[in-house]
């Protein structure tokens, strides 16, 4: 079965889970062609990402001089399907960006229509019978329009949280209706798709977890003594809750002289977070480590007793899976699919979202936990993530759905 993987921007440093899934599907026997609208080659540092970029057909690199004739040629030969595609694109674009009319949504969707017609033509040239898109955003819009224009069937994976912020603007219901099936990465994610799908489409909705490669995680190092020592990993953006984490650090610091947080990541809120650290006199308690590669992230986890995730919105974060695979318990907010993985009292601590007080109390609970108990929690975390998120096991589930279509 020759299929395509379709992503808006691919590969990206933050989307290694897509690369792992694609390669696992290839191990299942699929011939996979990678489509992406855009490339971020200039910002890629991982050799595996660079190699994947070289294997990917980037649609917008085709150039207008080739893309437009290809798209128009496909559409002119299929006037009925093209009329349906134009109507669907205009209707989905009418809501506009962020659900606000008059913000150029229709124009963007007409661009998606051209991209879709070109992709449909390329699929015909390559003998591709199915497209699987990642994210329920513009990549799924292109895949849906490919189908309406007479191209191959499609499915898509919804990761969240962005798709759940604007389901109407993203026409999630239409994308599910036209799809062969849709996948969520957690039961919570599927529950959100149930909200926007017709009841007659519920049978199309499935759960396939994002996966890790267990063999790449060697035996964990013992948790360091002292502390508590925490690591937080993620983009310095609003939804990650790092500003609230600094407030929690200020609450916990007076009673825990050894408390230290390493914050791995970069982003638009770095200046604000630096200012909060200074205002709360936490310069010796918080280290901003910046962006790190996989080796740097692994090193930061090994030097911490636990990962802390103070997020306000997530899907099911890869960083939680990686921390658990490294044998570290997790302090996390009770949002989205996180409680499906982090079990309070067994693999970590679950706290209500949006409360610096509860985060500080979890830090205190970590401080009271013995080295032996921390190691046991880390092993339980490792066992749980290997059981639920082995990429080859999860890819086999997706392969079964794809083969079922044949």
Automatic annotation (TrEMBL):
Source organism, top-level taxon: Bacteria
Q: Which GO terms describe its molecular function?
A: glycosyltransferase activity
Regions crossing the membrane: none
Q: Where is the Glycosyl transferase family domain?
A: 223-383
Task: Give the UniProt keywords, A-Z.
Answer: Transferase
Which InterPro entries does the entry link to?
Answer: Glyco_trans_1, Glycosyltransferase_grp1
Question: Does the entry feature the keyword Ubl conjugation, yes or no?
Answer: no
Question: What's the protein here called?
Answer: Glycosyltransferase involved in cell wall bisynthesis
Native organism: Pseudorhodobacter antarcticus
The beginning of the lineage is:
Bacteria, Pseudomonadati, Pseudomonadota, Alphaproteobacteria, Rhodobacterales
